Amino acid sequence: MAAINLTGSIVALATPLHTDGAVDYVGLKRLIEWHIEAGTHAIVSVGTTGESATLDFEEHIAVIRATVDLVGGRVPVIAGTGANSTREALALARGAFNAGADAHLSVTPYYNKPTQEGLKAHFRAIADAVDLPMILYNVPGRTAVDMFPETTLELAAHPRIIGVKEATGSIERMREIIAHAPAGFGVYSGEDNLGATCMLEGGKGTISVTANVAPRLMARMAEQALAGNRDAALKLDDQLAGLHRELFCQSNPIPVKWALAHMGLIGPTLRLPLTQLSDECRPELEAALKQAGCLHV
Is the full-model pTM beyond 0.85? Predict the structure, then answer.
């Protein structure tokens, strides 16, 4: 397994779709080039924001492969590979490895609510079988299972498990893992509003929805935070605060898909059961885009 250092603003990239629901690979190329030019530090392909739950297995791997090919080694590509079946998560991880991803992001199994011992067995089975750096993903608001810090820290001893994306909404949780994790294990904020604080307190980065629409500002904020420049990082984050809030006015990726379409970067298509952003959310999100400099005013 090759060593990899993942830091900074890591975009959880939206997957563009044509009006008939097919993947828009031209739109994907446009987004990737925009992110690289803007300074995004790494890309997550087919995570939650990339509609992993509505792409079938073949599409999932095809989008990862296309992302790897389009990036061409300019920034790391992290493949979303989570599933609530260990067998399926293993198959996705192997697909990500074969597609050339640099690492993979694996969410805690959803719906079936495994125990902490089940979580450890699940992630160890994948890490043992696939020679690809793994970032764990804890997001109990979506999965209905919380991976406790002690479980994360036990898994951190595995040489292929290199970090965790924490999306519990708790900076205290991140601090606890940062304080006790082995050297080289990264903590990544899965909550955009906590990304700056996470990095200022020893986290390695933020896996971000906001970066989809404000990549340059997010990259600058992350660089200042990682350098320990607290005032500069928080000043930049203040410009992003509206986006951190309004991009979650409805279930992700509904708002970010609307925002990207409003910016003229992709079409607005989502796959059912996701539907278009409600009218009442649009004015506040548009105002947040303007505040962050994403729209001409």
Answer: yes
List Cα–Cα distances, 155 to 74, 119, 164, 177, in angstroms: 30, 9, 10, 12
Region label for 121, one of left (φ > 0), alpha (ψ between -120 and 50) or beta (otherwise):
alpha
Pairing relation of β-strands 103-107 and 205-208? unpaired
CATH number listed for the domain at residues 8-227: 3.20.20.70
> Would you kindly state where each structural domain of the chain is located, as residue ranges?
8-227
Q: How many CB atoms lie within 10 A of CB 275?
A: 11
- Out of 111, 113, 165, 204, pick the active-site residue: 165
Distance between CA atoms of residues 297 and 291, nearest Å: 9
Which of 113, 120, 137, 188 is the catalytic position?
Answer: 137
Catalytic site includes residue 137: yes
The end-to-end CA distance of the chain, in Å, is: 48
Rg value, the chain, Cα: 18
| Tokens 């080289």 sit on residue | 184
Residue with tokens 């990207």: 260
Active-site residue flag, 290: no
Taking only the tens place, the pLDDT of each residue in 199-252 is 999 999 999 999 999 999 999 999 999 999 999 999 999 999 999 999 999 999
Cis-peptide into 283, omega within 30 deg: no
β-pairing, 205-208 vs 8-12, is parallel
Tokens read off for 221: 């904020």
> Is 297's pLDDT higher than 70?
no
Number of H helices, E strands in the chain: 12, 8
Using DSSP, state whether 113 is helix, strand or coil: coil
